[in-house]
Amino acid sequence: MPVSPLSCKFSIVNSKQKDNNTLFEKVRKQFIGLDTEYTLATGETRQRIYLDSTATTLMMEAAHEVLERFYHHYGNTHSLLHFDAKIASREYHWAHERILHFVHADADSYTCFFTGSGTTSGINRLARVFRDIRPDKDVAVVSLMEHHSNDLPHRKHMKEVIHTPVKDMDGNMGCVCLDSLEQLLKEKEGRINYVALTGVSNVTGIVNPVNEAAELAHKYGALMLVDGAQMLAHMSVHMTVPDNPAQNIDALVFSGHKTYVPGSPGVVIARKDILSKIEPEEVGGGMVQDVYMDRYEIKNFFPDREEAGTPNIPGAIALAAAIDVLDRIGMDFLQEEEEQLIKMVIDGMKANSEIQIYGESDPNICERSASVSFNIKQMDHGLVAAILNDYFGIAVRNDCFCAHPYVKEMIMDELLEATEEIPMEKIEAAFHLKRGMVRASFAIYTTAEDIKTLISALNDITERKEFYKNQYHVVNENYIHKTFTLRDDQRFTVLSTLEEILY
Fold first, then answer.
1. Quick one: 208 and 98 in the same domain?
2. Which of 178, 185, 196, 336 could join 220 via S-S bond, C-beta 3.0 to 4.6 A?
3. Catalytic one among 112, 175, 400, 402?
């Protein structure tokens, strides 16, 4: 249906817009769940500190409010003439255009479409597309630091996957080594279909030079795919580089649930000319021009041809709303704010000799964003995560973060040391307990006070290791407190909520 030009305008600048800091301070306090309180093992009740944003972010209230209001006008974009359908179609179209603008992707050359519930679906889809349109090029290149979602799809769909190394500075692993990447591209020239790199490591928060990597990939006839799951909420992304088109990114995928809208879909931004070379991966209603008994005709325009079936319209609109908010504040501004938090947490951890930080931590060598992973010496990662939750109300992630090769490489020496004096029959159990890290990850709602509380908690844990160890036992490789559990009245269940609503 025709779309009003007004729907494609982006309200980044207007006369009523507040300055960056004022808007930032307003928005950062308005996330659903920030004020949730739990009673801790100490008996005190505290507002939780959510430091697991790399796994998934909290819901932005502004995006949620947009969603609530939109539901009053909800209709299927495949309908045409009634009011709700017109409104839904216009705003869904706006969501596509808004995201393209956010990642600096030329709308004439790129399309945006929604798929699945995160990044994984989009990467699988692109891996198959790249394989099928370039069958003579049977090698994909990824890095050691990739999340499984940007590693396993390439292993499954390509004949060969090669892992390009990351920089190693005095035992500290940094970003992808461009010199090594170019050497690999030279050695395999003619066979490499594409290079697939994470923009930001979900383990260490280390930032990769994806545009520079794209230039190298293009030099040797390869395409460039970026896993932007940990990137989009934290820094400016440039899919097109007008001053140096060789650095353009061919395709990028990210997750809405990591960009302040849980329940929103995954997003693919890709060159139209690539997708036009092959029939869409998925077929169904909405992406066909016409269907006959013996054939069907696929639409020749984007993004319709890439979105079969009724899409997650509310999720896409809410995600675009959140992105609009981020753009109003300014991604460069947000990145600078986060860099201060990263410095604060790394400096605080470095001041404690019992804490091991993973990955290169010098910002002059490697840029970081979003995450810091660490361990406390002589304490298993699961125990530390449990203590932080039970005694301090701090939510963190532990284990291998779906990046097993990367994590194992960084902790190998510690694993060997930990199992040196353990009987053979107990080594496997010890390995499973110790083969991971603790990760604190940050978002727009993370404050300096949150960081101070985290550092204070870690200092307390290192000073009272034996006390905390004695409070837990291990059940099925999980650390369970011997006497404390979450109060029943603080537990959420669907059924109890329905009882409250309905009766």
1. yes
2. 185
3. 402
What's the confidence (pLDDT) of residue 421? 58
Q: Which amino acid is at 225?
A: L
**What number of other Cβ atoms are within 10 A of residue 293's Cβ?**
5
> Whole domain around residue 76: which residue ranges?
70-328
Same domain, 323 and 381: no
Whether residues 131 and 215 share a domain: the answer is yes
What domain count does the chain have? 2
Confidence of residue 63 (pLDDT cuts 50, 70, 90): very high
Assign residue 382 the CATH number of its domain: 3.90.1150.10
166, 383, 391 from 433: Cα distances, Å: 26, 9, 21
Task: Pull the structure tokens for residue 457.
Answer: 């908690």
Is residue 224 within 8 A of residue 270, CB to CB? The reply is no
CATH number at residue 228: 3.40.640.10
CA-based nearest residue to 92, from 7, 216, 197: 7
The DSSP result for 199-245, as a single string, is: SB-TTT-BBP-HHHHHHHHHHTT-EEEEE-TTTTTTS---S--TT-G
Q: Are 309 and 443 in a shared domain?
A: no
Tell whether the model's pLDDT for residue 166 goes beyond 60. yes
pLDDT tier at 287, thresholds 50, 70, 90: confident
Rounded to an integer, what distance in angstroms lies between the CA atom of residue 142 and that of residue 291? Answer: 40
My answer on whether 483 and 396 are in the same domain is yes
Closest by CA to 235, choosing from 25, 21, 11, 444, is 444
Q: What is the CA radius of gyration of the chain?
A: 24
Distance CA 325, CA 320 (A): 9
Dihedral sign computed on CA atoms, order 182, 187, 192, 196: negative
Place of tokens 């029943």: 488
Tally of CB atoms within 10 A around 402? 18
* Residue 402: active-site member: yes
Residue type, 59: M
| Residue 495 covered by a domain | no
